[in-house]
Amino acid sequence: MAVTARVQTSGVPLTRRLLAARPVRTAAGALGIGLALMLILLLSGLWAGVQQRVTVYEDHVGADLVVVPAGTESLFADPGALPAGAVGAAARTPGVAAADPIRTLYLILELSDGKAAVAAVGSEPRRPGGPWALAAGRRPQTDDEVALDAVFAREHDLALGDRVPVLGHQMRVVALTDDTAMFMTPLLFTTADAMTGMLRAPGTTGSVLVTLSSDADRSAVTSRLTAAGLTVRTPAQLHQAALTLATRIYGSPVRLMVGVAFVAGALIVALVAHTRVTEQQRDLGVLKAMGAPPGRLRAIALGETAALTALGAVAALLLTGVAGAILAWWWPAFPVAVTIPALAATAAAAAAMAGVAAWLPARRLARLDPATVFRSR
Amino acid sequence: MTTGTRPLFHDGRVPVGRRFLLAERRRATLTVLGVAASLLLVLLLGGIFAGAIERVTFYIRTSGASVFLSQAGVRTMHMSSSALPADTVARLGSVRGVEWVSPIGLASGSVAGPRGRQLTYLIGYDPTGGHGGPATLAAGRAPRAGEAVLDEQAADTLGVRLGDTVTVLGAPLRVVGLSAGGSSITNTTVFTTAGDFARIRGGAPVSYVLVGAQRGLTPDLLARRVRAALPGTTVQTREQFTASEARIVTDMSANLLRLMSSIGLLIALAVIALGLMTATLARLRDFAVLKALGAGTARLAATVAVQVLWTVALAVLVAVLLGQLLTWALPLAAPAVQVRITGAAVLQLGAGALAVGLLAALWPLRRIATLDAATAFRESR
Asked: Which of A364, B32, B55, B125 has its CA 20 to 30 A from that of B298?
């Protein structure tokens, strides 16, 4: 009776003792769970990073309003073309301080080490729309000059003064830019005239960046531009369009990957939990023989699984930190951003995994035969 | 002199490794499924990119052209811009061996219908020539002025039926035909007449020229002749153009694939190591009995290797089956995402999994190598 009472109280930290009894196996189990959670964290982090990086140009466009071709919502994905006269029409609109033409489009560069996609921008020298932060060199001024994202240049072993083929023209790299590593398509800057010439599109432009006078009312100017037959977007609308587009393209694969990673994680937690319960079957049989009720044994299984998952979550944080450092060194353009929502989602995934995975051993323990303890092994 | 037990181990009739693996079925199942899920992750990502390659190259592969012309320095269509000199088509007429010439205009933009909008390539071509348009029509007919052919998958997504009007690059066009195979994870394809293309884009730009070869003329020979006649352009055979197009996807995805494969295989390594380690530790006495009966370390190592082989083989099988299931099911949920699992990808994955499996077996092997046969005679653990 005294023994039964002892087992039924929660004074004995059984879960902790069981975990501490085989530290190597506990660490191995936590590491396995940590790897699975790291994968979820990395995928979530990648997704968050992608979302942050796909709008980097729209976030630095340096205009109050943007006049775009009819139907255009995204600067790079559906760029379209405007008659060159749209620049003058925008500039003459009351409340507009300046109107600057830009061209934005995706391009494939034929580099010596393979093909590389870039988001190309052609803007007027010393006007808005060009690079906003230089790591080295100066902004492009003539029609054979380009500025490259510094990370992209390093990846492809390109330096200031090198030549880069753009639409069949050998362009000289005169600047390396910072903060321009858009996901999969880093930014490349050149002059608007250079881009118009290379595209063989005289008399047209891509979009028009509109700077308002200090006392101008944005909505009034928008109305005037629209009344003149122009399509107007705010930088915030362009930001949202780029984000929506990225979600549409990458969203499904990322969700699928996270789903598979979750299943893999749940199976790893289940494997670890099941293995531990199997190993501890004799010890737990002793407890049952001493009078521990099935609920107590189930609680041990659940507690142990939860503790292992918690250890795995800590391991995941450490592993993600290490993986992030390795990625930053090996592939700086890979945008992993571990955000609070990503951490919360991973914690929720870990809890769900533990819940799913603990079910099997808990069920097994509930049916455990106390006679196990009397067998030789 | 041999003991009576030796032949038992040496003739290979007792599949000890497989029996050890399957003795604890739940653990074996969890191990195999855990590894399979990790491998599925690698397989799926590769499959998504393979599916993207198939779609990105679809128009080129099914165009029927032997040779493609593009702007000098431009070797691709996807995410590319090309503008050819206005006299290109006329100059091609004098090249010996040219059966037909079809100039097309290509622009990126969006197509909007009642249920939203989608990115699209707008291709302007001459429908009367019979080339440059959609390879086959699933429904309807080729476009005339003010009309368009839309990919059937995009039509379904956008809620568009034959006779409806869509907005393409800001211009209204009536849908009179539905094509197939022109939608990828990134965008779809709309075909219209060259006249409407020029109206929508402004001017009459020729982006690419498709060239058909006369019967009996090889694409390589025709490409050489075209190259000589139009030196300021890029001339590629269909095979070269297809390969160049595919390389956009492979080059862009290479780093991402390497990263995900590394993580997936690392997790597979952890699962196999975990499964093998616990399976070996749980059976240490059995291994000791085998050792006491005369089985050498090599023989015991072989049992571990067999467990790795079984685990990897079963996991690859499960991953491929699940992958095939997703290949079928995923387009139902996300029509834009195509997954294509190739034999080469499966072989590559199997080899990678086997390598990490054997790596994972090192710890149990070390444990067995140092195992004392006397363990077999101890009463309990």
From this structure: B32
Measure the CA–CA gap between B75 and B60, rounded to whole angstroms: 12
- Cβ burial, residue B90 (10 Å; 0-12/13-18/19+): exposed
Enumerate residues 2 to 21 of chain A having a beta carbon within 8 A of any beta carbon in chain B. none
Strands A187-191 and A163-166: unpaired
CA distance A260 to chain B (A): 6
What pLDDT, on the 0 to 100 scale, is given for residue B228? 94
Side chain identity, residue B209: V
Beta strands in A154-276 (DSSP E): 163-166, 169-177, 187-191, 204-205, 207-212, 231-233
What tens digit of pLDDT does each residue of B188-197 get?
999 999 999 9
Q: How far is CA A134 from the centre of its chain?
A: 24
Same-domain pairing of B112 and B253: no
- The string of pLDDT tens digits covering residues B14-46 is 677 777 777 777 778 888 888 888 888 888 888
Q: Which domain holds residue B17?
A: 6-56+249-377
Contact A76, A105 (CB under 8 A): yes
Which residue does chain A place closest to B333, by CA atoms?
A: A252
Q: Which residue has the tokens 């995009």?
A: B154
What is the average pLDDT across A271-291? 75
Instruction: Identify the three-state secondary structure at position A176.
Output: strand
CA distances to A55, A56, A320, A347, B355 from A341, rounded to whole Å, are: 19, 21, 15, 10, 36
pLDDT per residue over A80-93, tens digit each? 789 999 999 999 99
Residue range(s) defining the domain that contains residue A288: 2-54+246-374
Does residue B238 lie within any of the structural domains?
Answer: no
Number of domains in chain A: 2
What ipTM was estimated for this complex?
A: 0.70
* Domain membership flag for residue B130: yes
- Which residues of chain A make contact with B247, given a CB cutoff of 8 A? 114-115
Q: Are residues B78 and B195 in the same domain?
A: yes
Q: Are residues A257 and A339 in the same domain?
A: yes
Q: Judge contact between A272 and B275, C-beta under 8 A.
A: no
Q: Evaluate whether A234 touches A225 at the Cβ level (below 8 Å).
A: no
Quote the pLDDT of residue B114. Answer: 92
Integer Cα distance of A186 and A334 in angstroms: 11
Give, for A15, the enclosing helix (H) or strand (E): helix A14-21
Q: How far is CA A21 from CA A25, A231, B53, B381, in A?
A: 9, 70, 52, 14
**Contact assessment for residue A105 and residue B79, using Cβ atoms and an 8 Å cutoff:** no
Measured distance CA(A368)–CA(A288) in Å, rounded: 8
User: Among residues 65-84 of chain B, which lie with CB inside 8 Å of chain A?
Assistant: 71-76, 78-81, 83
Q: Is B12 left (phi over 0), alpha (psi -120 to 50) or beta?
A: left
Nearest to B109 by CA among B166, B24, B168: B168
Scan residues 42-61 of A and list those with Cβ closer than 8 Å to B. Answer: 42
What type of residue is A336? V
B139, with CB counted inside 10 A (0-12, 13-18, 19+), is middle
- Helix, strand, or coil here: B168? strand
| Residue contact A117–B79, C-beta within 8 A | yes
Q: Which residues pair with A240 in a beta bridge?
A: none
Choosing from A176, A211, A233, the residue where a domain stops is A233
Contact between A64 and B95 (Cβ < 8 Å): no
